[in-house]
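[Meeting: bench + compute handoff]

Bench side (C.D.) handed over the final construct sequence. Compute side (W.E.) agreed to return the predicted structure before the next meeting so the bench team could plan truncations. Sequence as handed over:
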Amino acid sequence: MIIIFPFLFVVGLMLCLPAYLSSRKRGNESRWFLFSSLPALALWIGLAASGYGAQSLSNIVEVILIIIAAVVMSYMKVLVIDRKFHKPVQTTYTMMAILAVVTFLLRTFMPNLPE
């Protein structure tokens, strides 16, 4: 567990790096863009530690889903949303809030998976 969380976070960060560099070329992008999954992961750890949601070791798949959602949202933000709204910093913070809501919903509705 101690090794897998930082590994997944770094993999997600590396997958989002091309989108960040592309967005950085176009304009003022927040440095939080690369770390957009960090608040969601911290929320997941807090919810799991407090006993909220299904408690099973197999529910680690939720962390993988959060990282995948962060990567997909990063590219959607850069390729679609930023081209339309031209506010990269605000959309980055919105993306982080959406990831936190998705994390809460995953923790709430994910069934107890067999180990």
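W.E. noted at the follow-up: The chain has one domain: 4-109. C.D. will use this when planning the next construct.
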